[in-house]
Amino acid sequence: MSWRRRGGRTWRLIALLVALGLVAGTGAAAVSVLWALVISRAENNDDTGGGSGAVFVVVHGGDSSRTIGAALDKSDVVTARAFGDAAADNPQSGSIQPGTYALHANMSAVSALAMLLDPVNRKVPRVTIRAGMWTSEIISALSAATGRSLADYKVALKNHAVLGLPGSAKGNPQGYLFPSTYEFAADATAAQQLHTMVARSLVELRKLGVTRDQMQRVLTIASIVEAEASARSDGPKVARVIGNRLARAMPLQLDSTVRFASHRRGKAGPTKLDRRIRSPYNTYLAGALPPGPIDSPGLSAMQAAAHPTPGRWLYFVVVNPKTGHTRFAVDASGQVADERLFLKWCSTHPGQC
Questions:
Q1: I need a surface site. Which of 104, 108, 147, 307 has the fewest CB within 10 A?
Q2: Cα separation, 210 vs 95, whole angstroms
Q3: Which of 191, 207, 223 represents a domain boundary (last residue)?
Q4: Per-position b or e across 270-296, b if 16+ CB within 10 A of its CB
Q5: 119, part of any domain
Q6: Helix %, strand %, coil % for the chain, to 5?
Q7: Residue 343 and residue 217 share a domain
Q8: Residue 54 host element (H or E)
Q9: Are 175 and 296 in contact (CB under 8 A)?
Q10: Where are the beta strands (DSSP E) in 122-206?
């Protein structure tokens, strides 16, 4: 503890002792009361009031009141003994959440506990990962939000055992980093953060009844649904088109997979040059499902892939990229008619296709 804190408490004890001496002649009862107060102060060295200045204290997940008290004592916020007493008297003390808290030096234990229980004082790295992001985009977002270096995440991505990926992923985390808003502990490593995201994907897939040996296929289809379906209601129909075409050994011919192959976000449709890219993800050339997911799909896309809508559709096209309006067809003639609608939209929106 700092001398300032010890000194402040010492002077308060001296004042109490002086008061004790002054009233010593007034009777044993008064002496007894004051002496008990002196002993209480000496035991827990508690301050009074709200303290001063700004002190940041980190509470980790699973920290006990004793551990939190020790951290507060080390930071000159309040003594561990005083905090322990205050926590024991407050049944809500067990609900303190992990995070970094902005407190004050030399507070009373009761005030410190109240601030730890108030979420306004809690600061945690928070990051929102949008559905449809590539792994490279996800780790950039994580790095920016948590302050950890991008290099840490790149190294963590190579630690397949720690990430908890299923064997069918073959070490590739693409698609398994579940999109959501996350609050990570201040000391959470890059590997721990990524593991949390992978674990969330596996949990959601299991809830949908997807077995471990089916996960790679379902997640791959879900990632395509995420990229291709503008409206959530279209997702199960897009998944059905993919299944129907695969059943007939028809090339999928999906622009989203070509964009992933080129790793370039772009306009409403890839160029002819893009469609000639030599890649197993180029479904204009490859006659099967891509070897893995092309983005991180959200829950609705997973649901669509796991439970497609029954139907005979073999084609779909977004005829209005601005609104996302999509038409589905069961034969080539219907697709040709829908493509004309798309081309008409492009002609009235130069530079967007």
A1: 147
A2: 35
A3: 207
A4: beeebbeeebebbbbbbeebbebbbbb
A5: yes
A6: 55, 10, 35
A7: yes
A8: strand 52-59
A9: yes
A10: 122-123, 126-128, 181-183
Question: Which of helix, strand or coil describes residue 219?
Answer: helix
CA pair distance 88, 82, nearest whole angstrom: 10
pLDDT digits (tens, 9 = 90+) for 171-194: 999 999 999 999 888 788 999 999
* 182 lies in the same domain as 291: no
Eight-state DSSP code of residue 13: H
Q: Give the whole-angstrom CA distance, residue 327 versus residue 335.
A: 8
Rg (CA), the chain: 31
Q: What is the pLDDT of residues 110-169, one digit of tens each?
A: 999 999 999 888 877 789 999 999 999 999 999 999 889 999 999 999 988 899 999 999
CA 233/CA 240 separation, integer angstroms: 12
In a domain, 146, yes or no: yes
Provide the whole-model pTM: 0.72
Domain of residue 225, residue span = 212-348
Q: What is the rounded CA–CA span in Å between residue 177 and residue 130?
A: 10
Verify that 102 and 171 share a domain, yes or no: no
Domains in the chain, number: 3
SS3 assignment, position 285: coil
If asked whether residues 48 and 117 sit together in one domain, one would say yes
